[in-house]
Amino acid sequence: MTIARTPAPAKVLRTEYQKSVASYWNKEKDPVNLRLGDVDGLYHHHYGVGEVDWSVLEGPEDTRDERIIAEMHRLETAQADVLLDHLGDVKPDDWLLDAGCGRGGSSIMANARFGCHVDGISISEKQVEFANHQADIRGVSDRVRYHFRNMLDTGFETGSRKAIWNNESTMYVDLHELFAEHARQLEFGGRYVTITGCYNDVTGGRSKAVAQIDQHYTCNIHPRSQYFKAMTANDLVPISVVDLTADTIPYWELRAKSSVATGVEKPFLDAYREGSFHYLLIAADRV
């Protein structure tokens, strides 16, 4: 497969807001991302799902933190597995796109599971550099590569992707622009999957807790209904919606007890528990 064009850096960061987001992630060295990735070399930038093994809080005090870190990493890797479960029938010759790839862990997992080609993109040059280094270390750089590109205008060929996903990265962009670009790149019948936090617009606008999350991550969390409106307007038909809210709360409860807590744990737990914030997986087919 060839790439139609390579956007110049000036075109990657199109707005002052995008520049500020890129600057945030270029400077970010948060232990909650790096220490968890150090467990096995899979570096994620998303949260976890599943039941917590609370026995990690027991045992020798001097290894307690190490046990908590390993358990949190297990849960975030389980979250990536849930997303990959919904990508459909991916074959080794297929090309996938990880939009907003962070430090690249999910792309490497997709290649390991399907044997496929994966391109990851990020507007953070530091993340791209880090992720490509990890692909080199693992010996998969012939099939997994990361690029400094904008998910709203990637430069990849029309109809070139069997599947595309966003894992907690949609809150940085306009959804109509994003899904239009995804629909352009997906082959007919291709699959799009996102896992995202969204605010519950049935109960009103952004709650105080959701606003605190926005402020913490320099993002703009979308209302739940906007995802479905933007998808259907861009030839993406939702086929599966999974509410992961209850499944992610244990991760946040454990994270709040860890040495890598950042202070955003309380807003997340408050928002989830009061029902103003949902953690959803949405899978859609390109029609």
TrEMBL record:
Domain Methyltransferase span(s) in chain numbering: 97-190
Q: Which GO terms describe its biological process?
A: methylation
- Supply the alphabetized keyword list: Methyltransferase, Transferase
What's the superkingdom here? Answer: Bacteria
Which residue windows are transmembrane per the record? none
Which GO molecular function terms does the record list? magnesium ion binding; S-adenosyl-L-methionine binding; S-adenosylmethionine-dependent methyltransferase activity
Q: Does the keyword DNA repair apply?
A: no
Protein name, as recorded: SAM-dependent methyltransferase
Q: Which organism is it from?
A: Amycolatopsis thailandensis
